[in-house]
Amino acid sequence: MGLYEFIKKYYIDSIVYKQGYNPVNTLTFAILLIVSVYLIYRYLSPRVRFDVRFALYTFPYILLGSSTRVVEDAGFVKPPFSYILMTPFIYILIFLITFSSLMIALRTKYRYYPLPGAVLSLSVLAFLLLNLRVENWWIFPAAITIAGTAVLIYHMFSDRLHADTFSKFVLFGQLLDGASSFLGIQYLGYWELHVLPRFFIDLAGPWVMIPLKLAVIVPLLYLIDSERTKEDENLLGFIKFVVFTLGFAPGIRNGLRMMFGV
Description:
- Keywords: Membrane, Transmembrane, Transmembrane helix.
- It comes from Geoglobus acetivorans.
- The chain crosses the membrane at residues 20-41, 83-106, 113-132, 138-157, 169-191, 203-223, 235-252.
- InterPro entries: DUF63 (IPR002749).
- By secondary structure, the protein is an all-alpha fold.
- The chain has 11 helices and no strands.
- The protein has helices at residues 3-16, 23-44, 52-73, 89-107, 114-131, 139-156, 158-161, 165-187, 195-204, 209-226, 233-260.
- Helix 8 (165-187) packs antiparallel against helix 10 (209-226) and helix 8 (165-187) runs parallel beside helix 11 (233-260).
- It is globular, with a radius of gyration of 19 Å.
- The chain starts with a helix and ends with a helix.
- The model has no long low-confidence stretch (mean pLDDT 90).
C-alpha cells in the first residue's frame, strides 16, 4: 500500500464517507490532541485560572461546537465545505473562535468571555429548531436523569472522595456522553464511532457505557482531588477542564442528533 492509499484509507475515507474512527486515525488524533493540549496549557497557564468558573464560561463554545456539528450531520452544508465541520477541522474552527474571544476578554473584561459563544451557539440552535423537526424529545431528559442520578450519589460521597463542584460537573458531562450513547444505540439504532467504546459495546452491550465512564472518571477525579496542592492546582484544574470538554462536547452533539432524528 502506497502513502496516498494509506492516507486515503485511514484518514480521507473516514471523513468523506463518514466511516467513523479506525485505530490509525484514532491514534493520530490522540497524539495531536495531547500535543495541542500541552501547548495550550503552556501558553494559557500564566494567564488563566482553570477552575469551574473558566469551564462554565467556556461552555457556550462547547455548545457551539456540538450544535454546529449537527448542522453538518443534518446535511445543511454540502461537500467540500461540510468537511470543515467534521473532525478534525471543526476542532480547529471552534478553537480559533474560543481562543480569540478569550484573548480579547483577557485584555478587556473577563466576564465578557462567554458572550460571543453564547450568541453564536444560541443562533445555531435556533437555526436547528427552525429547520428540523423534534423526533425524540425524551433523549435529553432521560440522559440528564441518568447522569444526574449518578452525580447525586457521587455527591453523597464527595467528602470521602475530596470532590469539589468542578469534579461534579466533569462527571456529569462524561455521564451525559455515556448515557446519550447508551440510549441512542439501545433504542434508536445509532452506532458508536470511536474504536475503544465500540469494542466494549460489541463485547457487553450499550449499557456498558455508564459503568465504563464511572470506572474511569471517578478514580481519575479522586486522584486529582486527593493529590491537589497549591503548586499544581492550575495544572490539575486544566486536566479537569479537558475531561469536562471531552464529556460535554460529544454528549450534547449526540443528544441533539438523536433529538432531531439526524
